[in-house]
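Weekly puzzle thread! Below is a chain. First person to post its structure in token form gets bragging rights.
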Amino acid sequence: MATTYSPEKAGSKELVPTTSLDDEKLGHSTDEVFIEGSEGVTQHDLDTLRHVADRLPVSAWLVAIVEFAERWTYYGTTNIFNNYIRAPLPKFSTTGAVVIAADRANGVAGALGKGQQISFAIRTFNSFWVYSTPWAGGILADTMWGRYKTIMIFSIVCLIGHIILVASASPASLENSDAALGLLALSIVIMGLGAGGIKANVSPMIAEQYTGKLRKVTLPSGETVIMSPAVTVQSIFLWFYAAINLGSCGAISASFLARDHGYWAAYLVPTCIFVAVPGVLLLGKNLYVKTPPRGSILLETMRVIGFALGARWSINPMKTIRAIRAPDFWDPAKPSNYEEGKRPAKITWDDEFVGEVSRTLNACTVFMFFPFYWLCYSQIDGNLGTVAAAMKLNGTPNDLIQNLNPISIIIMIPIFDYIIYPFLRKRGINFTPIKRIYAGFLVAGLAMLYAAVLQHFIFKESPCHDNEPSACVGADGNPWPANINVWVVSGPYILVGMSEIFASITSLEYAFTKAPARMKSVVMAFSQFQTALSSALNFALTAVNVEPRFAWLFGSFGVTAWIVGTIFFIVFRPLDRREIELNAIGKGERAGFVDEKPVESS
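Winning reply:
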């Protein structure tokens, strides 16, 4: 049965079921096999009709508002950590603000005066911690509390951390920079725990708000199209990422607040905005689709892996790898592989669950290449801010430029969602997740090579050359920048933004669509943990994360992104051919869904 616009309800454009007349007009056979889980969609329909996104429910937009507020508070604080930790208090300042108006043209806000390497180390730890704690949030949501309750609890934890951060930046605290640093560290630990618990759950929760099926729809123009859940989820994550970056633009105000009014004011504004997170959650309590916890399945998952691997293990590593990659690798773990009465007592699952485990591991393996991508992204968090500090600011705070990254993403997302991706689909070009992620690696590498070339010219133009040009001062003690306008550094921020649309957004989409219903938060946590691993790699490079070596550092990251991205594409290209099959696994009743509709809905 197809779905079309009823002529009697043309004004409301309400979708109503009709007969299979569309199939007859298209010449379809009535005995064609329908796609499992769809509403009357055949393989012929899937291959020949244009795929479009469905409308997003109100509850999805409410979740996007939650993410917007949470990201405003995160980036509104972390984006100014670099100057807060690295630079000393400006002349006559007790708050970190640039007090002398005449100095504001090229002046830099600061507070603790601990230098570039300590600043880098603390910021790297913050990133590592924030992207490690999603494990706790994911496991608690999947096994005990559910996503809604978990987000609510961790939002309160995060709010406490923000209050401590404001206290660390008060004039009384800044009188003793070591005490202020201690309070900063405590706030980072508490905020990271709260933010991580939210991050593991908010992206699966927004996608769960859409419960539509694969179906045919006739548009007012007369064109029959496929209303595709996969395309809808792609669109959801594009707009979810837009909410993230719209929120991160809050750092624009933070840069000016820190420079003009001090860090306590810059941190107070995000703290007040964060109150919206539990507020919006309460507001939409009766609208959200809530997936209940389903109990721990990690032990059962390990047993499935053990059964499959035990029969294929060899002391020859190459033989083991070939066995793992074999099509029948999972057969020893499937109950159907054993004769009646001979099934091992430890096998308490069915074949569907084995498929879920296989699918989960496929998704997790894809994410293991991402630490090298996030190495490139991490440079826009602080190191490029230091690069900007060595250039002519002309009244622009050096840590303001990095907001070009979220601004460019906000501008580009509608272009991709409404123009580029539909254009490709209309012409039959299947820009699959693996291809999009590969494109993200390539663009991120290009951004780093741009940064390396720029740093080379800064060394050439700065009066201090490669001897920390960001700290270069004249005889009067005022900053003496290189004769390069600070907006030239916008290139890497914009390119990284484009790479995020390809790689980062697609990773969220991939984590949601490829994870079984009972393991979505845990798989999302694993996806985000790759950023923590990237931070660990970055931390190991602390000795070379110094300004005189920035050009080589950026260049190395760029080449690495290209090489690793190419290996990624070669290894995972076969998964693209199984896209529809992988998306269908784990959506039956055993996964906690009936007809793809969550068990519990409020």
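Puzzle host: Confirmed. Bonus trivia for everyone else. Residues 298-349 form one domain.
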